[in-house]
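Tokens in:
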């Protein structure tokens, strides 16, 4: 091979490698490196926003410590230090995420909006200028940083409002379905009574009030009696409107709902007092018509739909921006695209996954997470998730095992299951025994 050919091959190899690297990055096979002096890099945003510097981290960590009421930084390597470290990195990333998302959604915050919000915060929380300055000093905030944080708060609020508006509205059929489901409970007013009451801890005073009312049971008479004998019910002449059975205890429930209109009842002993009662009006059960509660139902379903829609959006938001965030060594947390976890639940003790732990874990998560499906027929407009119940393993029943032994094993398999499952297991065992007897085995 000639010298020219060898040079040509080397050049070709270099070009090929360069093209492969470009292709790999374009296809996502590689990841951008975090520049020196930065702890993280977020792509898809302006460079002045996407670079998170070590200086940003140190200052944010200092603020975290101040907000946590710490007089000095926690010991390096301690659990508290690790918590603050993760919280600081997470907060810095989320700031970038919010700015990036606001740009993609076309959300803008004006300086006037920021000024108005800051003024509101100061008026509501800091009575004097001195108190405001002390807050800034204690929490290591500059005025510019306060402006930035308030702007992020406004961005977050506007994003939430914008996303929730995209939630689908309930249809007329859904509104009516909710009404029919809740009519008997939410939209039905139970029977109630309007009752006049005299309350006094002295039984003789109540008896005197009763005697006076027997002579004059008019509204004016009740006003005179309550003023003299029952100051605590004097307002409205002792009248208590729309008292329902749900709020009463015996014997009051029986006395009030068993009395005729205009009948004086008492004295009745109730804890440390004596009561004199008169039912003045009966209110029968009343079902509110759909037309009167339609707006209320629409508001309820709209709120549910908005929360569900926004919750699902947040999951996508976190996934999207996590995939765009790369962290330097020592700063990698779950919110970084280059994070490599163990796959173990964050709340689980590491001892759960060690062959010979020094201190065994008190409890560990199940290796397989049980699903909680909805009970058939329980999903509705009012309960979109339905009534959940945990699936249980089916009891072990082997139909080929015959006789008494088969029955015992079936019963053992059914132990710990639901009553219905136990009955099914027993029935299967009995059928198996019957088959064995019929075949003569």
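Residues out:
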């Amino acid at each position: 091979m000639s010298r020219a050919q060898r040079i040509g091959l080397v050049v070709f190899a270099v070009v090929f490698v360069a093209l492969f690297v470009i292709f790999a990055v374009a296809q996502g096979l590689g990841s951008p490196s975090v520049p020196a002096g930065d702890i993280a890099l977020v792509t898809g945003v302006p460079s002045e926003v996407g670079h998170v510097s070590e200086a940003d981290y140190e200052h944010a960590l200092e603020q975290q410590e101040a907000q946590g009421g710490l007089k000095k930084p926690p010991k390096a390597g301690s659990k508290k230090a690790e918590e603050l470290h993760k919280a600081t990195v997470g907060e810095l990333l989320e700031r970038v995420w919010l700015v990036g998302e606001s740009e993609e959604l076309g959300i803008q915050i004006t300086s006037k909006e920021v000024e108005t919000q800051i003024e509101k915060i100061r008026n509501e929380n800091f009575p004097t200028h001195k108190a405001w300055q002390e807050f800034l000093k204690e929490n290591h905030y500059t005025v510019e940083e306060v402006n930035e944080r308030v702007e992020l708060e406004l961005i977050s609020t506007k994003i939430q409002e914008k996303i929730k508006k995209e939630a689908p509205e309930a249809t007329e059929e859904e509104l009516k379905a909710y009404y029919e489901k809740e009519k008997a409970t939410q939209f039905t007013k139970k029977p109630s009574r309007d009752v006049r009451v005299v309350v006094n801890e002295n039984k003789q005073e109540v008896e005197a009030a009763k005697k006076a009312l027997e002579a004059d049971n008019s509204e004016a008479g009740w006003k005179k009696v309550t003023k003299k004998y029952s100051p605590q019910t004097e307002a409205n002449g002792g009248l208590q409107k729309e008292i329902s059975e749900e709020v009463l205890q015996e014997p009051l429930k029986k006395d009030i709902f068993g009395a005729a209109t205009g009948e004086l009842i008492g004295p009745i002993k109730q804890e440390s007092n004596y009561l004199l009662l008169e039912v003045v009006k009966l209110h029968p059960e009343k079902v509110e018509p759909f037309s009167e509660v339609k707006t209320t139902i629409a508001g309820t379903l709209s709120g549910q739909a908005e929360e569900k829609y926004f919750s699902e959006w947040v999951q996508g938001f976190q996934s999207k921006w996590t995939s765009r965030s790369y962290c330097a060594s020592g700063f990698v947390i779950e919110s970084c695209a280059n994070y490599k976890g163990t796959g173990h639940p964050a709340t689980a003790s590491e001892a759960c996954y060690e062959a010979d732990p020094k201190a065994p874990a008190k409890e560990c998560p199940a290796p397989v997470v049980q699903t909680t499906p909805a009970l058939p027929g329980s999903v509705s407009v009012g309960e979109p998730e339905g009534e959940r119940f945990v699936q249980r393993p089916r009891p072990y029943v082997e139909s080929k095992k015959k006789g008494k032994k088969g029955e015992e094993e079936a019963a053992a398999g059914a132990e710990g299951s639901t009553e219905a499952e136990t009955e099914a297991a027993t029935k299967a065992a009995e059928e198996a025994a019957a088959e064995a007897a019929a075949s003569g085995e």
